[in-house]
Structures are given as structure tokens and as C-alpha cells.
Inverse folding.
């Protein structure tokens, strides 16, 4: 099994539960989730709408906290950290990519990419240099002074990836990053994730598309707040091929 061994896991989740308070009482969304992701893995997360994927990603990204259970990020139990320490750990470890790109509309693309460095207290000159270098890397250097609404959705997602990379994260969390993109553009974005993974960045990526999930080595499937499948995508590939064979 992938992810079973390493004590130096990037992500270690144990018996994690999350409930939301509703008028009708606590509503459980994540139920006893266990997951270990080792350095260098590329994990696709699938599951029907409402199965808890985004809630789980937000907890992994330290944007939200579990109701019970443990979450160790880079070996640090996030529950033991105060707000500042958690923000530092998150900022220095994780790049987050969202379905809706989440660029600030009135800021230039360069300033959008540099924004995490403002929070990290990096000097202006270095912020500009790093933002330009990353825009160059995603092929959008010439748009540095443009605003988000002046470029296409696929280009906006590339800018969002540049922003996610600006703090040199070891982990990228992406929640349906191709959900708003056509299939050709989606493939370009996935090629970019594959390249980052090949450079050693650990990736956990939520998707509805089996074709997109095939870019990962490992597939985790959620159903009703639980992990119901965890295995290699190569296996899923072989399984699909065998099904096709049987059907023909
Ligand atoms: P997915 O990303 O798999 O579609 P989500 O994690 O967004 O699923 O949602 C899982 C469940 O939690 C859904 O039933 C959703 O309605 C519920 N939920 C999500 N956020 C909240 C919230 N802030 N308060 C109450 N319920 C929520
Ligand atoms: Mg979601």
C-alpha cells in the first residue's frame, strides 16, 4: 500500500472527524478518516459531490480545523500550534490552488503572485523578482502588469499555480483545479502539476474527471465522509481496461 510506512510523512491524518453545527444539531461531514501521504506522492481525490472532499482539503490546508482526531503536517500536530505558528507552517509548506482561481480582481497578476510573500515578510524587490520568475515559468511573463479579467481562465489558473509556488512549498493542495476549464486547457494544467511532482513536490488534487485522476499515481475515493478506496491509479487503469475487454 502507498503511504503506509514513512514516519516523515508530509500528511498524516488519524481518525479525523468533522461536524458542522446546524440548527438540527451537529452534522457529520468527515467520519473517521485515516490517510498518510509520503513525500513525492501525487494523489488524486475523487468522490461524489457532498462527500466531504473540500472539507477535507480545507483541513489539510489548515484553512479549517477538525472536530476530533489528529492531523500532522510535516510531522507537526496542527492542534498544538497557535495561530501564528500555524500560519507560518502553512505559508512555508503549502501552496493552495482552487477551482475558481481566487485571484484578487483589482491587483496586477504580478502582485497576485507576490501576495503570499507579503504575508511572509519578504522585501519588495525580492517579491517582484520571485513573482516575475514564476510568471515566466508558467509562460505568462508578458502579462505581469495585466489584471485577472484581461486573461483567459486557463491563464488565470496558471497565475494561481505561480502564486501557489511562490513560497517554494513542498506540498500543493488543489481542489478541482480544472473544474472550470475545457479539456484541452485542463490537460495543460495537469501537465504542469505532473512537472512539479516530477521535481519532488507532493500533490493532493481533487477531481471529478477520471482522465484527470490518471495523472496521479494514487487514487483515494471518498463516499459520505469516509475513504472507501485507496490504491494506485495504474491498478484502476488495468481494471477499466479489463472491464472494457469483458464488455466487448
Ligand atoms: P465535496 O467537496 O465533496 O462536494 P464538501 O466538503 O463541500 O463536499 O461538503 C460535504 C458536506 O458538508 C455537504 O453535505 C455540505 O453541504 C456540508 N457542508 C460543507 N460546508 C458546510 C458548512 N460550512 N456548514 C454546514 N455544512 C457544510
Ligand atoms: Mg468540493
Amino acid at each position: 500500500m502507498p503511504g503506509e510506512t514513512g514516519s516523515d510523512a508530509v500528511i498524516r491524518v488519524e481518525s479525523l472527524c468533522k461536524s458542522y453545527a446546524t440548527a438540527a444539531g451537529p452534522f457529520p461531514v468527515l467520519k473517521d478518516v485515516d490517510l498518510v501521504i509520503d513525500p513525492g506522492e501525487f494523489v488524486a481525490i475523487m468522490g461524489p459531490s457532498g462527500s466531504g472532499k473540500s472539507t477535507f482539503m480545507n483541513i489539510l490546508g489548515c484553512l479549517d480545523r477538525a472536530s476530533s482526531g489528529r492531523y500532522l503536517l510535516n510531522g507537526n500536530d496542527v492542534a498544538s500550534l497557535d495561530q501564528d505558528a500555524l500560519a507560518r507552517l502553512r505559508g512555508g509548506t503549502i501552496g493552495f490552488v482552487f477551482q475558481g482561481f481566487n485571484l484578487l480582481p483589482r491587483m496586477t497578476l504580478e502582485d497576485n503572485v507576490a501576495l503570499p510573500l507579503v504575508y511572509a515578510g519578504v522585501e519588495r524587490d525580492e517579491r517582484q523578482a520571485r513573482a516575475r520568475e514564476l510568471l515566466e515559468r508558467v509562460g505568462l511573463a508578458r502579462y505581469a502588469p495585466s489584471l485577472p479579467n484581461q486573461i483567459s481562465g486557463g491563464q488565470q489558473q496558471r497565475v494561481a499555480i505561480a502564486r501557489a509556488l511562490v513560497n517554494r512549498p513542498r506540498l500543493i493542495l488543489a481542489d478541482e483545479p480544472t473544474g472550470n476549464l475545457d479539456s484541452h486547457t485542463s490537460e495543460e494544467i495537469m501537465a504542469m502539476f505532473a512537472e512539479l511532482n516530477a521535481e519532488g513536490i507532493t500533490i493532493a488534487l481533487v477531481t471529478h474527471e477520471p482522465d484527470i485522476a490518471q495523472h496521479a499515481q494514487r487514487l483515494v475515493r471518498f463516499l459520505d465522509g469516509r475513504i472507501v478506496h485507496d490504491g494506485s491509479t495504474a491498478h484502476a487503469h488495468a481494471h477499466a481496461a479489463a472491464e472494457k475487454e469483458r464488455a466487448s
The longest strand covers residues 25-37.
